[in-house]
TrEMBL record:
Subunit structure: Homodimer.
Highest taxon above the source species: Eukaryota
The keyword Acyltransferase belongs to this UniProt entry's keyword annotation: no
MF terms (GO), sorted A to Z: adenine phosphoribosyltransferase activity
Name of this chain's protein: adenine phosphoribosyltransferase
Species annotation: Cnemophilus loriae (Loria's bird-of-paradise)
PANTHER family assigned: ADENINE PHOSPHORIBOSYLTRANSFERASE, PHOSPHORIBOSYLTRANSFERASE DOMAIN-CONTAINING PROTEIN
Amino acid sequence: MDLCHVPATREKGWYLALMAPNVKGPNYAWLDPSRLYCHPQGLQDCVADLLQPFQGDAIDMVAGIDAMGFILGAAAAATLRKGFLAIRKAGHLCVQTVAQPYTDYSGREKVMEVRTDAISPGLRILLVDQWVETGGTMRAAIELVEQLGGVVAGVAAICIENSEGGKWIQERYKCSHCVPPRLQPRFDQHQ
C-alpha cells in the first residue's frame, strides 16, 4: 500500500495492511507495524481506534512500553493531552527505579523498570504497547504500575493475541486493540 494513499472507505483496522511480514526469521516478531507509523492517516486512525473504548474514562497518564510502545503511547498521550511515562528495559534509567523480571515473546528472560517518582497511589494509567503476543511484557508493566500504587485504567495495543497471557490481561483489564474479530484468528496464528 502506498504511504500516501488513503482509502475512500476507512473501516476499523484498514491500516493493518500497511504492516510488513517478517523476512528475517524466528528471532523476530512475525509482523512489523513500523510502516503503519509512517502513514499519517493510518497512524491517526490507529490511535483513534485504540482510544475509542476509553472515551469518558478517567485517565491521568499514558505509559508506553519499551521500545515500540513509545510511539503509540506518546501519540495517545498527545491526543488525550496527558503526560507520557516510558516503561523501560532495565539499565536505561539513571534515576531511582523499581524493576520487574519477565519473559518476552521470544522466551528471553528480561527485566523492565520504571522510575519511582512518576506514579503516585491512585494515579490512573493507560498502558500502551505495539503488540501483546504472550503477555509477559505487558504483565510486567502492569505489575510495576500496581506495585507503585497506580491503577491500570486500561491496556491498548495494535493486537492483543488470544494467547494464555493475552486472555489473562483481557479478563482482568479494560482492553483495546485494532484487529477486527474476523481477522483475529489469522493474527493469533501469525498468518
